[in-house]
Amino acid sequence: MTLEENLAKPLVISCAITGSITTREQHPGLPVTPAEIAASAIEAGAAGAAAVHIHVREDDGTPSCRGELYEEVFQRIRAQSDVVICGTTGSGGGRFSPEGRFAALHYKPDLASFDAGSLNFGERVFENSPSFLRQLAHEITSRGIVPEIECFDIGQIGNAVRLQPEGLLPGPGGKWWFQFCLGVRGGAPSDTQTLLTMRSLIPHGAEWSVLGIGRGQLAMNMVAILEGGHVRTGMEDNVYFRRGQLVDGNGQFVERVVQLAREVGRPVATPAQARELMGCPSKAVASAARN
Question: pLDDT at residue 57 above 80?
Answer without folding.
Answer: yes
